[in-house]
Amino acid sequence: MIEPISEIEVHRQTEHILSLPIWISWAAFLVALISAVFTSDWGLASATLIGIVFLIIPFWLLKRGYFLLSGSIYVLMMLITVTAIAAIGQGIHDVAIMAYPIVIFFSSLALNRLGFRISVGLTLIAMGWLVFGESWGLFVSAPYKTPTWVDFLVISSILLSAAAAVDILATNMRKNLAQAKQEIAQRKEMDELLRYQSSHDSMTGIYNRNFFETELHRLDLSREFPISIIIADVDGLKIVNDTLGHAAGDEKLRQASEVLRSTFRAGDIFARIGGDEFAALLPETDAATAQQIVSRIKVRLLDHNARNPTLPLQLSLGAATAADNLTDAFTLADKRMYADKSLRKSGDTSTHTA
Q1: 72 and 112 housed in the same domain
Q2: Are 226 and 322 in contact (CB under 8 A)?
Q3: Whether pTM exceeds 0.70
Q4: To pair with 258 at 20 to 30 A between CA atoms, which of 111, 168, 276, 330?
Q5: Co-location of 58 and 177 in the same domain
C-alpha cells in the first residue's frame, strides 16, 4: 500500500523546486559580476551586485513558506535587474535577456494563474523597452566589447542551470505521476475487492444472499420464462458443529458448495442464502431439465461420499419451475426442500422435487 505524501514532504519538495531558479540567478549574476570586473565595466558590476543582494529577500521568504510572496518579489526584481543590465549593456542583444525565460519558468511554478499572466506581460513590456527604448532615445546601448568567452560562460551557466532545474521538475512530475497511477490501480483493486465481497460469500466463494435476491428480482422482471430454482440444505450440520467443532462444519459447507457448483452450468446463479442453505437460479430451464440437474446432484453426492466415507455429505433438495412468477417458484422449491428433509428424517429416502 502506497503511503500518501505528507504535508511536510510536499512543503519540502515545493521549497526545493522553487529555490532552484534563485540559485540559477545567483550563479548567472556571479558570472556576470566576474566578467564585469574583468572588463572594468563598473556599471554592469554594480547592477549585478545589487541583483545578487536583492535576491536574498525572495530566498528568505521562500525558506519561511511564503511561496506566493517570494515568487512575486523574485519576478519583479529579476525583470528590473535583467532589464537594467541589458540597458546599460548591449540592449536587446545583451546575453542577460536569456534570464527572461527563467523568470517565466519560475512564475509558472510559484505564482497562480493570474500572477503568471502578469509576469508574462511584464516580461513582454521589458523586452519592448529594450527593443524600442533605444530607437526612441530613452537609453543608449554600450558598444559590444564583452569577450566571447565571457558570453559563452554566461550563456552556458544559464542553460545548464535551467536544464538542471527542468530535469528535477520533470523527475518530480514523473514520480508523482507514477505514484498517482499506482494509487489509481490500488483504488481500482480495492473497489473490485469491495464489489466482490458485497456479492460473494466469504466462506465458500460463491454468491451471497444479497446478490441472489437481486438476480431473482431482475430475472422476475425480465419475464424470460421458464426459469427454474433448486434449493439445497445440508443435513445434520448442527450435529457436526456440536460434536466435531465449527471448523468441521465449515469444511462440510465448502464440500457441499463444491458438489453443487460442479453440477450447475456457467450461466446459472448459485449462492449460499443461509447458514446451511444453498440455492440456484437456472435461466431458460424447464421442469424436465431441472429434474435432470437434481439427478446429477445426487450422482455427484454419491461420488463424493464414496471418496469421503468417514464424514458423508447429505443434502435435502427442492426444485420448482416458474412460468410467470419467480418468487412463488422460490417459495415452492423451499417447501419441497423441507418436505424432502422430513422424508429423510422419517427414513424414506425418496424425494419429491417435481
Answers
A1: yes
A2: yes
A3: no
A4: 330
A5: yes
SS3 178: helix
Which structural domain range is residue 36 located in? 7-182
pLDDT at 352: 43
Number of domains in the chain: 2
Residues 6+ apart with CB under 8 A from 193: none
Cell, residue 151:
558570453
C-alpha cell of residue 352? 419429491
User: What is the mean predicted confidence (pLDDT) over 140-154?
Assistant: 67
How far CA 321 is from CA of 220, 224, 226, 233, in Å, comes to: 12, 12, 7, 18
With 60 as the cut, is the pLDDT of residue 5 above it? no
**Inside any domain, residue 102:** yes
Integer Cα distance of 147 and 202 in angstroms: 79
Give the number of other CB atoms < 10 A from CB of residue 220. Answer: 20
Q: What is the pLDDT of residue 354?
A: 41
Q: How does the average pLDDT of the chain come out, rounded?
A: 85
Amino acid identity, position 142: A
User: What does each C-alpha distance from 162 to 116, 120, 172, 329 come to in angstroms?
Assistant: 18, 18, 15, 76
How many other C-beta atoms are found inside a 10 Å radius of the C-beta of residue 40? 8
Give the span between the Cα atoms of 261 and 263, in whole angstroms: 5
58 contacts: CB under 8 Å, gap ≥ 6: 22, 70, 71, 73, 74, 77
Q: Which CATH number belongs to the domain containing residue 278 in this structure?
A: 3.30.70.270
Nearest C-alpha neighbor of 324 from the set 332, 336, 314: 332
User: DSSP state, 120?
Assistant: H
